[in-house]
Amino acid sequence: MDNPTIARLLAETADLLEIDGGDSFRIRSYRRAAESVEQTTVDLAAIATDTAQLLEIPGIGKGMAAHLQAIAATGTMPLREELLAKYGASVLDLLKLPGMGPKTVALLWDAAKIASIDQLAHAIEKKQLAGLPRMGDKQIEKLRKGIEDYRRSVGRFRIDIAEEAAAKLSKYLLKFDGIHKVSPAGSLRRGRETVGDLDLLVTGPACLPEHTAAAVAYVAAFPDIHDIIAQGENKVSFHLANSLQVDVRLLPPESYGAALQYFTGSKAHNVALRQRALKMGYTLSEWALARLDDGSTVAAATEEEIYKALRMDWMPPEMRENLGEIEAAAHHKLPRIIELADLRGDLHMHTTATDGRNSIHEMAEAALERGYQYIAITDHSKNMAMTNGLDEKRALEQIRRIHEVDKRMEGRIRVFTGIEVDILADGKLDLDDEVLAQMDIVIASVHTRFEMSRDDMTARVMRAMENPCTRILGHPTGRLLLRREPFALDMAAVLRRAAELRVAVEQNAAPERLDLCDRDLRLAKELGCNIVISTDAHDTRHLAKIEYGVRQLRRAWLAPENVLNTLGTKKFLAALRPRP
Length: 580
Ligand code: DGT
Ligand code: CA
Ligand code: CA
Ligand code: ZN
Fold this sequence. Notes:
Bound molecules: 2'-deoxyguanosine-5'-triphosphate, calcium ion, zinc ion
Shape: globular
Distance between the termini: 54 Å
CATH topology of the largest domain: TIM Barrel
CATH superfamily of the largest domain: Metal-dependent hydrolases
């Protein structure tokens, strides 16, 4: 049991207690414990039997230490089980709906014994919620839409969650004698923003036919497996504790390339590729590219030789969606797409001045370590009160501090002044122009009032871009993957105007956002927009997440020259909209 899981159990217990109308002091003690567990670097499961060591963790008292010990020993704790027995496990799903907190769940339970999303959907359909306190028409409509979004998203997982699972599993598998290579395939390899399941291919001498039994048994013994779905001669499918499905396939080295090609997909790419093979007198399967007439193998060991035999160039997995890549590869006209190493800076990050965890200086050092030539420090503005957003006075103070750090870095990296300023409901920016005009990088973002009509939201964003201080439009649709749909927006109109005004549009690489998405990025390129990619880091470690955004740029076939922050410092500044 790892710390994030323990933290989740504690936080869920707090939610359950609150639904149950528990004592607020007690509820808070569970929440505080969940936060400490989330923060601590000590592996709790490893020290759980040592009460004295548990008590040294802030927020953990005697009672909580006993709960932690119960969790480490049994995977749960009595209070949680008691409450789950009373309300049912599905009650926790209700909390995943937008705007739904424990208090509202308690209300739904008291009024109509609603304890699951299905029951809530049913009650809405039967118009049983009308008349309940805090359940006006607007609120009910919001819930109805939230349920739709939720149902669409269940069963998929964010790319970073899949990536983490793949990394952990690879590390485990590579310890087995005779397993030499592990590669993610499927949607993860293609860099899709979410994955339905995780496909892992494994090869090495241990994967030769007739010898796979031991390796298959080893796969099935992976400690994080929740339940095994199917186990065959060269395949194991299972669920992890977070319910992510994993398909592991063991392949002999001589057909590894064919398997990698097949299981990388996409399905549409494979169908088109198979048609091309047929026309050439070949058949393409997960085992080989073979001749139709005598079945002899043409190519199988590597992807490169398969594509070559089909008279095509090899192409990056991100391009394999049957969106023109087959023709381009056949005519040797694939563009050189952007890669991580092309980037020279990161333009969106937060510090302890608002809701970040690190100082300006720490962010600068971390960016320097990544080899960047420049960064911008862009904390929130005052409209984001819960993040301690900057007002005019503090923003000026922040400019001074950034200058200080910039000087201290002695030219090793340039630290731009900046802000992520809120776009207010009417499209005005949250800070005075005189202050904004003093910043290098002004990112304007929508963080509130998402439920506007498409026309109103479009006008709002347009107005924010008209302000001459705006240099970048931050996370343009405000979506949170699997949690919040993009707000309604005339994206083409916004991008067209952004191109005219030379306002750059942001690809926000945070794996919960990845906004702009690949489709919008393609449109932005077509319309001649300036595009930047940034992490929106709230922690030095988040700077590495740039990679998730790069994959979206690659899926959109962007070249280095389509992205501003591939430019060196001077050229980058010159390419931005001129400062007012
Ligand atoms: P996902 O898991 O929904 O995010 O998407 P994928 O692309 O990972 O799909 P998945 O896991 O069902 O299958 C992995 C790859 O295997 C898929 O991209 C292409 C290949 N594949 C699976 N089923 C078929 C099929 O029926 N026909 C063909 N041509 N390829 C298939
Ligand atoms: Ca998959
Ligand atoms: Ca699969
Ligand atoms: Zn933001």
